[in-house]
Design brief:
The structure is a homodimer. By secondary structure, chain A is α/β, with parallel strands linked by helices. In chain A, 43% of the residues lie in helices and 15% in strands. Chain A has a 6-stranded parallel beta sheet with strand order 2-1-3-4-5-11, with helices on both faces. In chain A, strands 7-6-8-9-10-12 form a 6-stranded mixed beta sheet, with helices on both faces. In chain A, helix 7 (132-140) links the parallel strand 3 and strand 4 (147-150). The relative contact order of chain A is 0.12. At the A-B interface, helix 4, helix 5, strand 2, helix 6 and helix 10 of A face helix 4, helix 5, strand 2, helix 6 and helix 10 of B. Chain B binds a DNA duplex through residues 7-9, 17-24, 26-27, 31-33, 36, 51-52, 54-61.
Chain lengths: 342, 342
DNA sequence: TTGTATGCGTTATCAC
DNA sequence: GTGATAACGCATACAA
């Protein structure tokens, strides 16, 4: 005895009004007289009515949903941001669809589909490596105005971007180490094709140059943001004949595993080596020694990206402009950095 | 000059066939002759047509989407699982909607809405603390058959549940410590209302009893899975007059911060205290000393939960049965456990 | 194998 | 302030 989901017609019948009135009660209640409005809401409660999302979406040509493209969902850095994006969007009546861009299926294709088939109204991408093909597709469909970058970005696409002041973060790290007396500073990078890695590395090198510091080529150690690459970087570091006295890692995860691996080699942090991370993951404050790092306002990044998108979705004619919002970063001084030894 | 999104009618016109034929080409291409099928696909390419999801959903009464309810998206434990859920669902043509149950809005209400208004076809919940009200609502709508638990579960709802063998995990931990000579073993629990915490604690106590070990009440230290609570537990531990020689933590995060805090108090792990965690987060293998822990197959949990749900969505009449799938756990012996000192 | 015609449940346009 | 009615774009029962 399947009891069918009540529809707007059933509510109208119970309330003794037309379907149009029920619909209005749902979408613009202020336009109804108080008495009919209450009649309708009573009927809605009585019938257990829920609006059919598909029908509404079809009619209004809106999805009430947003897609978030995440590079590696398993990374806690991104999932925290996703959480705050979810919070803001949910509060504004939007559902959140999520897609991991690490998946086998071509992400650009998938994302375009979501946008073009009306599954979602907009896109927040935490992945800067979006294909230009995707950009073209969305542009042709006049949907490029509903895309916002968060954290990462692409210089090829002139879109709003909410990001940390990565260059400042790198400078803060270098300045801090410099002030502690360090003159031989290494840098563990992120993936070569990652925009964050590029910017942080460039700023690191520029600041070192400004301070008159020489950075030997071998001190630029390639990493990829992962724990494993941090450990690998440590191996290279300890093997250097003239070891740097400090290292700036482009991510906390690399910094943490680098420190652990250095310990295994008998190197003491910060006595023998000062280490600065980037991100300020929660665990950075709970390890021993606790990690000096550059804090990113992850919650703020997600929140502001979501707000930016909502603004654009609400505007009649979304502009394809590359508004850049820089989120502040802070140097969090903990226990992995110290003045250089004798 | 907004170029309107082409519809099925436009494709039909270009291909010189009826709209029904175009629709069939999309949904059951094998039922068309090869020539017309190709004509249609050519027309689809030519027009840049994409099916309108809302219209299709309205017509088919399906959403092609699944909701995943996550308690604390920011927790890497859950986000890894979400990632593998995403992978399986995407491969099967389902979109993934995500909702963080930590949000202010009443999760049960929100989840029910998603299910009842047709936004999603099914639900995978990683949160065992779903309200019974939600259960009732879904049951009334005959939608309870499309819900699957993953990791956590609720004894009040007879639903399929993909979970780790938590009791075995606790036993493995105790047995390992016992074999190393430990007789005074403490336990840091998860939140009191969490089903995983309950099961792990009960199994811990039961195994200790079986082995003839006494567990002083104060050795059961309340935690809540977080880093902060692990540090707090460490404080209590070091303050004990007759300290246990080993501790089994209900999560890796608690274990990691407990170890760090103990170090600050001059306690050496594993010399003065052996520690076993639970989860096997990736970082457990990258800290120094590396963490002995109980591995959960997070990827497998997510994958199997997704597969279970898909099976049920494909079945004509989903059963409301409480099929329990136990995912194996493994003791991963690393460096935080050692034989008891003299 | 293909075409015709109807309806999915809602909102928007127009009357009243 | 409210009601009748026509779309929204697609999939399917039925015909051919």
């Amino acid at each position: 005895m399947q009891k069918l989901q009540p529809k707007i017609k059933d509510v109208a019948h119970v309330a003794g009004v037309s379907t149009a009135t029920v619909s209005r009660a749902l979408t613009q209640p202020e336009r109804l007289s108080e008495t009919t409005r209450e009649k309708v809401f009573d009927a809605i409660r009585a019938t257990g009515y829920r609006v059919n999302k598909a029908a509404r979406n079809l009619r209004t040509r809106r999805a009430g949903a947003v897609l978030v493209l995440v590079p590696n969902l398993g990374n806690p850095f991104f999932s925290t941001i996703l959480s705050s994006i979810n919070e803001v969007l949910a509060a504004n009546g939007y559902s959140v669809l999520v897609f991991d861009s690490q998946q086998p299926s071509a992400p650009g294709q998938v994302v375009s589909d979501y946008m073009l088939n009306g599954s979602v109204d907009g896109l927040i991408t935490l992945d800067g490596n979006v294909s230009s093909a995707m950009g073209d597709t969305l542009k042709n469909a006049h949907m490029l105005g509903n895309v916002v970058f968060c954290c990462e970005w692409s210089d090829a696409l002139p879109l709003p971007s909410i990001r940390s002041d990565n260059a400042l973060g790198a400078r803060l790290a270098v300045d801090h180490l410099f002030a502690l007396g360090h003159r031989r500073i290494a840098h563990v990078t992120g993936p070569a094709d990652n925009i964050l890695a590029k910017v942080r590395r460039a700023a690191f090198e520029a600041r070192c140059a400004e301070l008159g510091l020489t950075v030997a080529p071998e001190w630029i150690i390639p990493g990829d943001f992962t724990l494993a690459s941090g450990a690998h970087a440590a191996e290279q570091l300890v093997a250097m004949p003239e070891r740097p006295t400090a290292v700036f890692c482009a991510s906390d995860e690399m910094a943490l595993s680098l420190i652990s691996r250095c310990k295994q080699h008998g190197l003491s942090v910060p006595k023998d080596l000062s280490v600065v991370g980037f991100d300020d993951l929660e665990i950075a404050g709970f390890v021993q020694p606790s990690l000096t790092t550059i804090r990113q306002d992850r919650t703020g990044l997600g929140r502001r990206a979501a707000e930016e998108l909502i603004t654009r979705l609400n505007s009649v004619q979304p502009q394809e402009i590359s508004r850049i919002v820089l989120s502040p970063v802070d140097l969090i001084i903990r226990d992995t950095t110290a003045t250089i030894g004798p």
